[in-house]
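seq:
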Amino acid sequence: MKKNVHPSRDITADEIEDTLISMADPVQREILCRFFKTGKGEYGEGDRFLGLKVPRTRAVVREGKLRVSLPEICKLLYSPWHEARLCGFLLLVEEMNSLLPRGRRHDTADSARQRREIAEFYLSHARQANNWDLVDLSAPYILGQWLLHPLPDGNRPDREILDRLAASDNLWEQRIAIVSTAALIRSGEFDDTFRIARRLLSHPHNLIHKAVGWMLREVGKRDLPLMLGFLAEEYSRLPRTTLRYAIERLPEDERRRWLHGCFDKNS
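struct:
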């Protein structure tokens, strides 16, 4: 990987993990273990926390961004510590961000190849994003951004990858499928969100219901009639949690009508 900062010195996974461990907070650890459901039979069962809030982990990422190789990031992604895995994913976000064309930064075939490398790396290790925060802080900024920009041949990546992730037997890959579309929504592209949402409406897990509702709400911020039309069309299939998340920003009386099915069927 191209290093844009301090090219003479690579930072290792061990250095980063040692730094994170030195910042451990036992009191906050207990809070995070409860919050992220690490108990037996819960979705985060067995995950281990150092007790660092996200801003503290981000501070470590700022020091290491663009100075950690993919093999070293890989080691972080397989750390037993949740915060080390988060650090690895956030470092990947920084790598992808450094390769996006913006302002005076023009796109090149080399940048496109490196973006593809990062996206493929992310997909290869996606199951290590094994809690909702790891997915939500990485998927839109890595996979989502990759889908928005051209490949070396000038064509955009095939968004069928979202369908493959949605069809996975892994909860976190399924959440990646829908949350990645946040980047597409911000660019005014909604079709992928609706397509993946439809695939996931029958999903049994509340974490997917929440993610689908969240993405629908994001569409609604930009095109409310379109989002309400989707809700009306799929109303009989909508999990209650998905509906509540999707209509969260509506006026209270309108929310009540939707919750009781008293909405305009032609919305």
